[in-house]
Amino acid sequence: MTILKFKDLDEVVERANKSMYGLAAASGRKKKDITKAHAIADRVRAGTVWVNCYDVFDAGAPFGGYKQSGIGRELGEYGLANYTEVKTVTIKL
Q1: pLDDT per position in the chain (93 positions), as tens?
Q2: Which of 4, 23, 89, 93 sits between 20 and 30 A of 66, alpha carbons compared?
Q3: Residue 75 CA to chain centroid, in angstroms?
Q4: Taking the alpha carbons of 65, 70, 72, 75 in that order, is the dihedral positive or negative?
Q5: Which one, of 77, 40, 52, 49, lies nearest residue 62 by Cα?
């Protein structure tokens, strides 16, 4: 684990997004400020973001990464896309 000091949340998000990987991220908040937690989760380029927890999964929630951490998703409705083919059929009657 690496622990780094920071000035503000903009710096935290910038550092996180500089990584060429983006599988998952976690944020621990001393104060339970859900607005800030959502703001961080929205801005961090990672496929999964945990707040005040880590390594929590649900079979209905899609899992996969951003950037060089993978393409596509496993689990959930998005995971089904890997097993389907879309076809359009047009017939003039």
Answers
A1: 677 888 998 998 999 999 999 999 988 776 778 888 888 899 999 999 998 888 998 888 888 888 999 878 888 888 888 788 888 888 888
A2: 4
A3: 14
A4: negative
A5: 77
By the 8 A CB rule, do 72 and 81 touch?
A: yes
For residue 24, what are the β-bridge partners?
A: 48
* Torsion sign (Cα): 47, 2, 29, 58: positive
